[in-house]
């Protein structure tokens, strides 16, 4: 496999099914899918087995024991287990549009990572979406979304082709490594030691992107081209103390130019080269 798609999940098998249906509806399916599971109950494992039975691509389930929010750790385990040399990383609550993988593959460049966008849906719309809506792409159609509980459809879902490229060019939003939608070369991610396991929820994905930039890897803006829809859910894992700690880590990363996470895929300081 030249490409691995990694999606993180935790105790959300209904949402995970919708996300995997989105990958099974892609215009290209020459990739492996790794479900990075931060300690879900057995119903998630059963869902993965069910989804794997008739999948056009291999699906692997990488699981760790539930010891609180450890998304960075399970993502690092999935990265280490991946077989692709290019990694697309998203979340188990983000359903990809049919051209999602194709767009990431078309945009990839050496010494760059791709920063995609997402569209947040309200709970009613998230619950309404069926497998058929994903397969026939109703779930990405502005008129369908408005008719099913989403009155304010983001411009991302209405922009295509040259217009989407223009929006990427003029947007004031900086391209960052977004947990919901980003991709990069595995060798570049390994070179910064993956995600920082000292971090809980809150900017932990962006911090790795900031280390990639510190290491000479430039971002490509694709927030209006690489599209996924975000299914609504509760966020009981948010902790104020962790948010403050994460903000301090990110500030240090930006200010000092740190590129290596000492608590990443490898534990310890960056190996010296001969």
Number of strands: 8
Number of H- or I-type helical stretches: 11
The CATH architecture designation is Alpha-Beta Complex
Structural class: alpha/beta
CATH first level: which class? Alpha Beta
Distance between the termini: 31 Å
Return residue spans where pLDDT drops below 50 for at least 5 consecutive residues.
none
- Global outline: globular
Percent of residues in β-strands:
15-25%
Largest sheet entry: 8 strands, mixed
Corresponding CATH superfamily: Spore Coat Polysaccharide Biosynthesis Protein SpsA, Chain A
State the assembly state of the protein chains.
single chain
What string, H for helix and E for strand, traces the elements in order?
Answer: EHEHEHEEHEHHHHEHHEH
Q: Quick check: average pLDDT?
A: 94
Radius of gyration: 18 Å
Structural commentary:
By secondary structure, the protein is an alpha/beta fold. Helix content is 38%, strand content 20%. It has one domain: Spore Coat Polysaccharide Biosynthesis Protein SpsA, Chain A (Alpha-Beta Complex), CATH 3.90.550. It is built from 11 helices and 8 strands. Strand 2 (32-37), helix 2 and strand 3 (59-63) form a beta-alpha-beta unit. Helix 10 (204-214) runs parallel beside helix 11 (240-256). The longest helix is centred in the last third of the chain and has 17 residues, at 240-256. The chain starts with a strand and ends in an 18-residue tail after the last helix. 44% of the residues are buried.
């Amino acid at each position: 496999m030249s490409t691995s798609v990694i999606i993180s999940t935790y105790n959300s098998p209904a949402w995970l099914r919708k996300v995997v249906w989105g990958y099974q509806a892609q215009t290209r399916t020459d990739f492996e899918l790794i479900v990075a599971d931060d300690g879900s109950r057995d119903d998630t494992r059963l869902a993965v087995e069910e989804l794997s039975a008739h999948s056009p691509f291999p699906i692997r389930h990488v699981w760790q024991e539930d010891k609180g929010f450890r998304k960075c750790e399970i993502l690092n385990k999935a990265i280490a287990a991946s077989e692709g040399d290019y990694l697309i990383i998203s979340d188990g609550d983000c359903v990809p549009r049919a051209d999602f993988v194709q767009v990431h593959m078309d945009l990839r460049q050496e010494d760059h990572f791709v920063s995609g966008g997402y569209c947040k849906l309200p709970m009613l719309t998230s619950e309404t979406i069926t497998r058929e809506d994903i397969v026939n792409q109703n779930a990405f159609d502005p008129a369908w979304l408005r008719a099913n509980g989403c009155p304010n459809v983001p411009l991302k879902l209405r922009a295509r082709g040259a217009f989407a490229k223009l929006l990427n060019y003029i947007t004031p939003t900086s391209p960052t490594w977004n947990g919901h939608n980003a991709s990069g070369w595995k060798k570049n991610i390994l070179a910064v030691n993956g995600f920082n396991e000292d971090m809980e929820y809150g900017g932990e994905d962006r911090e790795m992107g900031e280390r990639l930039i510190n290491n000479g890897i430039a971002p490509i803006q694709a927030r209006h081209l690489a599209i996924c829809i975000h299914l609504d859910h509760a966020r009981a894992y948010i902790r104020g103390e962790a948010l403050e700690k994460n903000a301090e880590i990110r500030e240090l990363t930006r200010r000092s130019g740190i590129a290596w996470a000492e608590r990443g895929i490898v534990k310890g300081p960056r190996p010296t080269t001969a």
